[in-house]
Description:
This protein is mainly alpha-helical and 133 residues long. It is rod-shaped. The chain has helices spanning 14-41, 46-66, 110-114; strands at 83-84, 104-105. The protein has a two-stranded antiparallel sheet. It folds into 2 domains: 14-66; 77-87 and 98-133, no CATH class. Helix content is 41%, strand content 3%. 2% of the residues are buried. Residues 72-95, 110-133 are annotated as: Disordered. Pfam families: DUF3099. Keywords: Membrane, Transmembrane, Transmembrane helix.
Amino acid sequence: MAENYSVTSAGVNPAEDRAHRMRMYFIAMSLRVVCVLSLIWVRGWWVLLAAAGAVILPWFAVLVGNAVAHGGERAPEAPEPQAITAPEPAAGEERAPSAADALIVVDVDPERRRGAAPGSPAEPGGDVAEGRA
């Protein structure tokens, strides 16, 4: 059987999520109204059950109404940043260091940039980032 793959890690449609939460809130509050009205005609220990429903259901309705679905999707796997380097010299051939020997980082994760040490090439103030070798 073939696996299904998600194109994006987008969550649940916001309109559908909101409609579902509104339905759940409406159902819980309708049950609360039934509990409050049943306090008029029920007797015995049933009064405690109806009173508990009238007190607990609003709290439950608010929790359900505010619970936004995130979809449970996992984030896509990002590849490692690519580095472009100069080609290796042929056997027996020496070459002088030049600007082509500098490491050029094509893509850097924002967390890695923020965590870089001061003056390192990944930081905007570093030598390589400003174009100096």
